[in-house]
Amino acid sequence: MRKLQFHPCGAYKTSYFEELHIFSTDFGRLWMWIGIVLLFGVLPFISNAYILYVVNNMGIYAIAAVGLNLLIGFTGQISLGHGAFFGVGAYAGAILATKAGLPFYIAVPLAGVMSAAVGMVFGLPSARLKHLYLCIATLAGQFIIEYVLVQWESLTGGAMGIVVPSASLFGIDLGNDRAFFYVIYFCFVLMTWIAVNLIRTRIGRAFIAIRDNDRAAEGMGIPIFPYKLLSFAISSFYAGFAGALYAYYTMSITPEPFNLWLSIEYIAMIIIGGLGSIPGSVFGAVFIVSLNEILSHLTEYLMNVGVSTGVAITIAPLREFVYGLAIVLFIIFEPKGLAEVWRIVRSSFRLWPFSY
Amino acid sequence: MEFFLQLLVSGISLGFLYALSALGFVMIFKSSSVLNFAHGELMAIGAFLFLALSAWADLPIVLAFVLTLAGSFTLGFILEKFFLRPLIGEALIQVIMLTLGLALMFRGLLLFIFGGDIHDYPEFLPEALSMQWGNIQIPGVFVAAIIIGILFLILFGFFFKYSSQGIYMRSVADNQPAALSLGVHVRRVFALSWAIAALVCAMSGIVLGIINGINVHELSSIGLKVFPVVILGGLDSIGGAILGGVIIGLLETFTGGYISTSLREIIPYIVLIFILMVKPYGLFGLVEIERV
Fold this sequence. Notes:
The complex is a heterodimer. Chain A is mainly α. The longest helix of chain A is centred in the C-terminal third of the chain and has 29 residues, at 278-306. Chain A contains 15 helices and four strands. Chain A has a domain at 25-257. By secondary structure, chain B is mainly alpha-helical. Chain B is built from twelve helices and two strands. Chain B has helices at residues 2-32, 39-56, 61-84, 92-114, 140-162, 164-174, 176-181, 186-212, 216-233, 238-259, 261-264, 267-278, and strands spanning 131-133, 136-138. Chain B has a two-stranded antiparallel sheet with strand order 1-2. In chain B, strand 1 and strand 2 (136-138) form a beta hairpin. In chain B, helix 1 packs parallel to helix 5, helix 9 packs across helix 10 (238-259) and helix 9 (216-233) runs parallel beside helix 12. The longest helix of chain B has 31 residues, at 2-32. The radius of gyration of chain B is 19 Å and the shape is globular. Chains A and B meet through helix 6, helix 10, helix 12 and helix 14 of A and helix 4, helix 9 and helix 12 of B.
């Protein structure tokens, strides 16, 4: 057995290859395996139906948030249409499943590919323009896609939506929450693994170079536009993939959830989680989904209390205010998000009692 | 023909409303190149402040109007001081995200205080403002919007061209470090431009509120419609904002009148995508030649 790696008390890296390691110590890898075992072996059996539902949602959101972080956090291009691309994926998955009758394991990746294709159409303006304009183009994309989802009734069923058959894999029905938990989290682990490794490749380094200084990147021979478009396509693919999973999970979809608000929710996730950090996007997804649940319980509670006093509190304003406040506070005080907080907490444990 | 003329007139008036609401946006973009996503919410704040002062506190209209403008001016200062100043020198993405966060916060607050219903101002515009041409009539508010729009166009045109503050603003927008090293007080320029922008927003919010009634959702969706308007006109051109507003307004009313009403809401964004692909700096925008 080879020698185990521990944290050295300083930077002793002697090659770029070492710099690219995902885990700097073997403990990190060990913790990851412990986490995966707990996730798959313990979590679905100790949690009740409600918790499982929330956890499943977290997984779906986390996949899409990882995709958005590849675009905003690593390539520096803002997208305000991620919710719509999520919706395109959901509809593509649903239509492929019902009209084309494709099996689950083909429909979901194919929905991701379709979503990527739609995303690239709206990414085209970035050919000539900098990030400000891509942000506006995707905003337009958001509205146009919403319109198409409602109006193209022959394909999308209009406001009535589509009922999706429950997924099945190798003859096993995946209709219940626990079975679908495994599907979602298998995809989640796979997609996160792809994202983490993508950043270490030539493509990922090109993304980061474009984010840090696009002129310098161009000067060093990185073709900016193809890489921007590629980043956009990958991000839309993640959104579409997650959207298709969402369609299979909820079993019936309507155009309503895929509005601008959802796009903003995704942006909130990655800002709060940490721009330019894959674990950050997962933290953000967990944070936002839990926040949603806490707020809806809180308003329910306040409604019950407030019945006697005649105070009616609806969830929407409260939610918007709290999201806005969270975004503003994180940007001003901790622009690197929860991922940075997590790093600080960890290192202060590691350096105890001499932490600074 | 009469239908056509009525659509034409209402399109132009709608366009001036868009142009008026785009002015504040262009103001901020011109001085700090920040895309302000809280634009619609700033308009809503102005409109509701005026509502609270004029209808609920029962102040005279003129006093309420002046107080609203003063309040928005202060709000702009406060916003800049507490939220945007810590971000000077940070990446633009952070600033844009921050305005998005502010937009959510404001919308939540306004919905919490005033609810999502439509509120109305008491009648106060003089009847003489409305015009009648044969069968075509233009309501007084639209005339007021056009007058205010043109007035502000001229005012801002002179402000940016000749006043020292206006020149500072343009210099800061063009190159922040260079302006700083030449002795421009960048922080004051930012504060002033946010304050003026908030003031203009409040005014356009009030005008919009008089026409459609005041509603948080309505005003914030108009705040987003500013994007097609300013992109069409050129992001940093005030004259372009007016022309862009009129073109978008005409497109909307004609699409609504001749093709379909559901397409009406979406046509500005389709135009936006098209413009971005064909002529990305708009009709009058400053073309930045940058080959990346």
